[in-house]
TrEMBL record:
InterPro entries given in the database record: HTH_MarR-typ, MarR/SlyA-like, WH-like_DNA-bd_sf, WH_DNA-bd_sf
GO molecular function: DNA-binding transcription factor activity
Species of origin: Nocardia flavorosea
The protein's name in its UniProt record: MarR family transcriptional regulator
Domain HTH marR-type, chain residue ranges per copy: 5-140
Length: 152
């Protein structure tokens, strides 16, 4: 029989996988009218406040550098992002959002805001804050364990 820590871990993982699927489906629904996909929105969102190299975006998103590179190239081709020189690394260019990319993000803002308000009302703003903090703590704990190379 599984111990309670193992059961909790399994339930947390399964719930996280389901929530991830729900978030991705919702992101597709919110992003589509703005001419974006969920993946494009994620990459643009990662560089809204400051340009980042592809590897930095991948670390932030928890995905592979190759998948971010493919999306960044598409965003650049479509004029939603641009590559800029990186003073810290000659070959690893920075990805930055363009005015057109910012406009696309702005277009999805009202629907995003409306859903966020509905979610906060459903769960309660204070409880939603606690949930977000707990998810961030759980993510940091997994990073800490993975970073330490522990398997038990």
């Amino acid at each position: 029989m599984e111990n309670s820590a193992q059961q909790l871990f399994s339930t947390a993982a399964i719930t996280s996988f389901r929530l991830n699927g729900q978030f991705l489906a919702l992101a597709e629904k919110l992003a589509e009218p703005a001419g974006l996909t969920a993946a494009w929105w994620q990459v643009l969102g990662a560089v809204l406040h400051e340009p980042l190299p592809v590897a930095g975006i991948a670390r932030t998103m928890g995905v592979t550098r190759q998948s971010v590179q493919r999306i960044a190239d598409l965003l650049v081709t479509r004029g939603l992002a641009e590559y800029r020189p990186n003073p810290a690394h000659r070959r690893a260019k920075l990805v930055a959002v363009t005015a057109e990319g910012q406009a696309a993000i702005d277009r999805l803002g009202p629907r995003h805001s409306e859903f966020a308000a509905r979610l906060a009302k459903q769960v309660g703003a204070e409880r939603l804050t606690e949930i977000v903090q707990a998810l961030a703590e759980l993510s940091a704990a997994v990073d800490g364990i993975e970073g330490a190379g522990e398997s038990d």
